[in-house]
Amino acid sequence: MTSEAVNHQDNFTFLSSANAEYIAHLYAEFLKSPTKVDASWQSFFSNLDDSEKDMLSELAGASWTPAENKTSNRAFGTAPSAVPSSAASNAPATASTQDLQQATQDAVRALNLIRTYRNRGHLLAQLDPLNMREKEDCPELEPSYYGFEEADMDRPIYIGGFFGLETATLREIQAICQQIYCDKIGVEYMHITNLEERDWFQERLETSQESLSFNVDEKKEILKSLTKAEGFEQFLSKKHPGTKRFGVDGAESLIPAIETIIGQAAKMGLEDVNIGMAHRGRLNMLANIMGKSYTAIFAEFDGAASKPEDIQGSGDVKYHLGASSDRDFNGNSVHLSLNPNPSHLEFVNPVVTGKVRAKQMQRGETESVKVLPILLHGDAAFAGQGVTAETLMIAELPGYRVGGTIHVVINNQIGFTTMPKFGRSGPYCTDVAKMLVAPIFHVNGDDPEAVVRVATLAAEYRQTFKKDVVIDMYCYRRFGHNEGDEPAFTQPLMYKKIAKQQTTRTLYEQKLLDEGTITSAEAEAILSEFYAHLEECFAKKGDYKPDADFFGGAWEGISLPKGDDARRGKTAVRQEEIDEVASVLTTVPEGFEINKKLKRVLDARAKMASGEQGMDWAMAEAMAYGTLVKEGFGVRLSGQDVGRGTFSQRHAIWYDQNTNEKYVALQNIAEKQGKFEAHDSPLSEMAVMGFEYGFSLADPKTLTLWEAQFGDFANGAQVMIDQFIASGEIKWLRMSGLVLLLPHGFEGQGPEHSSARLERFLQLSAEDNWQVCNITTPANYFHALRRQLHRDFRKPLVIVTPKSLLRHKLAVSPVSDITAGNTFHRFLWDDDAEKLASPDKIKRVVLCSGKVYYDLLQERRDRDLKDVYIQRIEQLYPFDDKGLAKELAPFKNADFVWCQEEPENQGSWHFIDRRLEKTLELAGVKTTRPRYVGRPEAASVATGQSSVHLKEQAALVDEALSV
Ligand SMILES: Cc1ncc(C[n+]2csc(CCOP(=O)(O)OP(=O)(O)O)c2C)c(N)n1
């Protein structure tokens, strides 16, 4: 021990709370002006390094509250102080300046060490049950990094109330820090910017460890839960060896974790939990959390269907199916819903949060405590899939908030055969969550008590602060990617280790036996009783009859579509309703300074409603929304810049030109009306479309619309379209009335803004899965939108919406087209039909869809042709061949062409040519094969040169009209 160290030891008490206040005062003075303190303090303060100065700054800025009132553990801020602050300017007589300076330096260094543990202790935490995680080299977690020597380890240092202690030795400080921050739990919370939340964590993490221990009953519950998790998988493996089940084996602590999260959240008001997860452990979750009967699962392993025979649908594999149930958690009843999901990992995330948002709104929830999303992730998928980041990114936005999601990562340290060091760039698979400044708990899955502890904290945090929180449970995958897979092909050493690893339940049982919490007879009984129960359920599997919960809850009154009629729905409205709604939509509230150009738009809209002027696209849409909310339905529109509309056409939100204040006329239609929301979304397609799809699953009484900025951007959400919207109903018996609005039009704007890729949607059309429309009139758009809610079934609607038609002088509808007697039309006749030759004299029928109709119409007028008829198909799918045949039958002697702007390999042609062939046969006309007129096949959508575009367009119109 150096003489200096001895001197320190003698003088450690020189820095007491009173003296700390004195030094804080001195430092505050020094910061104001160095010459305010004497030369020795000047030099002392000047020589401190930056982090030590930080500590002293906190000391200087701290409000001095007595220890018992403390709410914060920050730096010196909670130093117990019996000394009134008026004493601060007087140095306590007992301490020499040199002693005080030395003691101060010790304190700031020790506090720096503690702070570093809070920040970086997780890097040394014992998280990996296999002990294969490469630990970081962390010299900054050693006292020597702060200038301490071995000789300093055992002398008390002033730490101002940290861990409830005024003084502690470095050895004690390090032991406490390691226990809190480097044991089986590693916490990342210091990046949280909100101080209240950070203090909340600190307080909970740094309370005495004894108060965190579990009582006997709690420990038994954990053991029982692990027994169910392990026993279920082992039972299945015995009965169906080698069959894929994507077992939870190696991650059994997941089950007590989820049980704890729901139980804790329920104590704090939770009533409805919505879970999204992938394959791993899904059957276990279904059985042990969702309460799906073991018998049902055993029957499904025998090949039983998951739905009754009389219900149509392709079904899905058992580890993708959803379920719902009601369960009791310590006296609190909770509705549980596990969303079905496709194989595509992580894409279910925004679907679940969208669903939660709808449920929260249905309950009128403002506190976000009653409905909770829980998302389970694999480590490789969480890190790798961009939709994870998109879902996190929208979590705090006003239009998409759900008051926080609890994320649980089943971190089995492998993705199929890929090891973490090839699966992500950062140290943790959860690093992406930091963009949301979400707290992250890393925890060792082989310590179920630690897992339950973080599960409790995560649920408390979410229910208190209403924000996302992440649990990263390190575990392992006992078998291959699935149970028939050989993991030793690629991870021989890891799997040698795993073969020797006792199960989590065995380890925990042993711990409870060792500490005398249970007897071996009790342990044996827990296991044998559960197996006996499984055997009983297994014996009953032959009697199992599946059930379908197609139309429960909010879906009451909705049914499957019946027959194959036109399914028009009653969509017309009375002129009085139009007048009432239009009056609100075109009246600027008093005192509101409207944009002058917008005022002209509103004046024109008033004339459209009264019939003085033809109604344009945007007014028809506003009238559809306005009449729906007046009837009590909701309307939710989301997508990039939807409030104004990408093409400055919608103006659903007005901004006061002096104050920026918003006014939404559609929210002021009537005293009692449905909710209207228009949310300008962030620049994401995938998560936002998925969110809206989820919303539509939970709320059939709200017209839910997602709009692409330009239609082609929808392919940024292709997985949502393919896996959920097109096929969700047929796979999972879940209806959706989501509307996709996809601006589309070949208008010379180059390859990327011309096509909504209609061909993709048409290729996906089958089994009555959705509706695909390319509409040409505002009135038909009005009816198509209202039809979504005015029928007793729901189907997604894809509309390729127009761009130039928004302001095209011909693309207007008289207001009478939306009043009594009118409905949606799947086909539209020629506007000039009456001026044309009689049908039998028509030489050419041009069949088309969308904007090209107006190009053809205009050119035919210009050429004054009488023997060419133009027939529009407004709804491409479901395609009504009989209905169209009726329309075409009179043109007995004509030839038929299909005219489109899109290249031949795109647009509708490949979808419609065979259907038209059949239709022409049904119509009994002379020509039975339509001819294609349009651009030739092309790899890119359109030319980038507007002159070329114009030439191409003129040529195709010419060819279509030239008989
Ligand atoms: C989007 C997507 N890409 C690829 C796959 C194929 N796949 C299935 S499981 C898997 C590994 C997933 O690893 P991880 O997320 O760690 O979960 P684990 O299977 O280890 O539980 C992969 C690549 C998939 N299902 N989804």
Question: What does this entry look like structurally?
Answer:
With 963 residues, the protein is an alpha/beta fold. The termini are far apart. Helices cover 39% and strands 12% of the residues. The strands form 5 sheets. Strands 3-9-10-8-7-4-6-5 form an 8-stranded mixed sheet. Strands 14-11-15-16-18-17-22 form a 7-stranded mixed sheet. The structure holds thiamine diphosphate (TPP). Thiamine diphosphate (TPP) is lined by residues 280, 343-345, 378-381, 385, 410, 412, 414-416, 477, 481.
Largest sheet: 8 strands, mixed
**What is the 3D form?**
globular
Spans of 5+ residues with little confidence (pLDDT < 50)? 1-13, 62-89
Number of strands: 24
* First-residue to last-residue Cα separation: 108 Å
Describe the structure concisely for a colleague.
The chain is 39% helix and 12% strand.
Q: What is the topology?
A:
Layout: H1 3-11, H2 17-32, H3 39-47, H4 50-61, H5 97-120, E1 156-158, E2 167-169, H6 170-181, E3 185-188, H7 195-205, H8 216-239, H9 254-267, E4 272-276, H10 282-288, H11 294-301, E5 323-329, E6 332-338, H12 348-362, E7 371-378, H13 379-384, H14 386-394, E8 406-411, H15 420-423, E9 440-444, H16 448-465, E10 469-474, H17 492-500, H18 504-514, H19 520-539, H20 575-586, H21 596-610, H22 617-630, E11 634-639, E12 654-655, E13 662-663, E14 676-680, H23 686-698, E15 702-707, H24 718-725, H25 728-732, E16 739-743, H26 758-763, E17 771-773, H27 778-787, E18 797-801, E19 827-828, E20 844-848, H28 852-863, E21 868-873, E22 875-877, H29 881-888, E23 895-903, H30 909-923, E24 931-935, H31 946-961
Parallel strand pairs: 4-6, 4-7, 7-8, 8-10, 9-10, 11-14, 11-15, 15-16, 16-18, 17-18, 20-21, 20-23, 23-24
Antiparallel strand pairs: 1-2, 3-9, 5-6, 12-13, 17-22, 19-21
Helix pairs in contact: 2-4, 4-5, 5-6, 8-9, 8-18, 8-19, 9-16, 11-19, 12-23, 20-21, 20-22, 22-27, 23-24, 28-31, 29-30
